[in-house]
Amino acid sequence: MKPQRRSLLKRLFASVAGITGLGVAASKAEASVAAPQKEVFNVVNEKDVPLFSGSTKLGNLVFVAGKGYHKEGDIKVHTDEVLKELEKELIKAGSSMEKVLKVNVYLHDLNDYKGMNEVYKGRFGSKPPVRTTVAVYGGVPGDSLVEMDCIAYI
Amino acid sequence: MKPQRRSLLKRLFASVAGITGLGVAASKAEASVAAPQKEVFNVVNEKDVPLFSGSTKLGNLVFVAGKGYHKEGDIKVHTDEVLKELEKELIKAGSSMEKVLKVNVYLHDLNDYKGMNEVYKGRFGSKPPVRTTVAVYGGVPGDSLVEMDCIAYI
Amino acid sequence: MKPQRRSLLKRLFASVAGITGLGVAASKAEASVAAPQKEVFNVVNEKDVPLFSGSTKLGNLVFVAGKGYHKEGDIKVHTDEVLKELEKELIKAGSSMEKVLKVNVYLHDLNDYKGMNEVYKGRFGSKPPVRTTVAVYGGVPGDSLVEMDCIAYI
After folding, report:
1. Which of B50, B61, B141 sits opposite A133 (nearest CB)?
2. Does B106 reach chain A within 8 Å, measured CB to CB?
3. Percent helix, strand and coil across chain A, each rounded to 5?
C-alpha cells in the first residue's frame, strides 16, 4: 500500500471518528477504533459514594443533571440562577446554551409559569431547545421554585 | 491516487456521513466534514424573543416539545389530540410515530391512566417506544388533561 | 483496485459501522449501509395491542421505560426493586448500570429523598449518570413509592 493512500485513509478516518466522538488508535497498517465511552463531570458523592454527576457525555451528546436554586428569591431569581447553573455544566462539558436540544422544567407552582418564561426566553439563542414544563407542588427538592435539566450536544 | 480509488472513498464517506446526518464538503484530494448542527422547527416566540421550538434535530435524533390540548374534552379527546400534535411535529422533522423511542406522559389526574391507555395503545406501531407516566395534579399548563413529549429518530 | 486495499477499506468500514450500530451490506465493488433501525425489548400489550416497550435501542443508545414496584415495602425496598428492574432491562438490551447516562426519579413523597439516596448511591459505579428528582404526591402509577427511567448506551 502506498504511503499517500494510507495517509488519506487515516485522515478520513480521523475525521469520522472526531465527529462521532470516538477515540482512535491507529497502528501502522490497520486502523482500529475504541468504542465510545461515557465521560462524567462534577460528580456528587453521598458519604464518599458516587451519587450522581453534574453532566455526562457520550460522543457528541451531553446530559445535564436537574438543577435547583436553594436560596431566597422569587421565580425570576430562581429561574436566572438555575439557567446559570445549567450553563456552567454545559461549558464544563464543552457545550453551550446555544447547543441545547431539550429542556425539562419542573415548577413548584404553575402560577410561576409566566415569571419563569420572562427570564427563560432568549437564553438559549435564536434556535431554542424543545421544552416540557409541568408543576409538581412541593415536589422540587431543596425548596427551589424551579428545577431544570437538559440534553445538549458538542 | 487513481480516480477509481478516490471515487470509492468518496462514496464510502458519503454513505457514512449520510447515516450520521452530517454535511459533507469534499474537496479534490481531501474529504472534510462539518460537525453536526442543530435544526429547529416551529419556534414559539414570547414577545418576539425565541422561547422554545416545536422540535429540534441533531443528526438522526429528533426531540419534540411537550404538547397539551387546550380545549374542551375528556381524557380520550385530550390524549387523541396530543398524539396528533406529536405526530405533526414528528412529520415536520422527517420522523414518524413508528420511529419514536421514548415518550413521557404527564397526566393531570392519575385516574385518567386507563382512559389515556385506551387511546394511546397501538398509536406508535408494533414496536412502541418506552414510556414513563406520572400525574402532576394541576401541574399541566393550560388546563390540558395530559401533556406528552417524545424523543424519536429519522 | 487491488485486493489488499479493498480489504483494508472493508475492515475500516466494518469498524465504523460496528461502533455506530449499523448493519453493513457490502457488495463486491461497493459498500452500502442500512440506516439504523429501532430495536425494542419486552413489549407490553394492552388487550393484544402494543402499549409500550421495556426498552428501545437505536445505534448505541438505549432508552428504558419508567419502572415502579407494586408490592409492600418502604422507600428503601421500592428503590432497590426499581433499580433491579432497570438493571434487568439494561442487560436485556446489551447495556449495564455502569453505562447509564441519565436517570429520572419520580418520588411519591419528597420526604423519601434521603431514603432513596441511601439505596441509590453507588449503584451505577464510579461514574454515575446525571439525575433529576421530583416528587409527584400520588402521581406514580400502581402505588409505587418511586418510579425511575433511564437513558444508557452500549
Report:
1. B141
2. yes
3. 35, 30, 35
Helix B3-19 with A3-19: angle, nearest 10 deg? 10
What per-residue confidence (pLDDT) applies to A35? Answer: 79
The rounded distance, in Å, linking the Cα atoms of A18 and B16 is 13
Asked if the A38-153 domain carries CATH number 3.30.1330.40, the reply is yes
C142 vs A79: CA distance, rounded Å: 33
In this prediction, residues B59-69 reach a mean pLDDT of 98
For residue B124, the 8-state DSSP code is T
Collapsing DSSP states into helix, strand and coil, what is residue C89? helix
ipTM: 0.80
Residues A147, B31: Cα–Cα separation, whole Å: 44
Q: Provide the grid cell at B16.
A: 457514512
Which pLDDT tens digit goes with each residue over C130-153? 999 999 999 999 999 999 999 999
**Are A8 and B30 within 8 A, CB to CB?**
yes
Contacts of C51 in chain B (CB under 8 A): 117, 120-121, 128, 131
φ, ψ (nearest 5 deg) of residue B108: -70, -40
Q: How far apart are the C-alpha atoms of C139 and B137, rounded to whole Å?
A: 7
Q: Residue C26 is inside which H or E element, if any?
A: strand C24-26
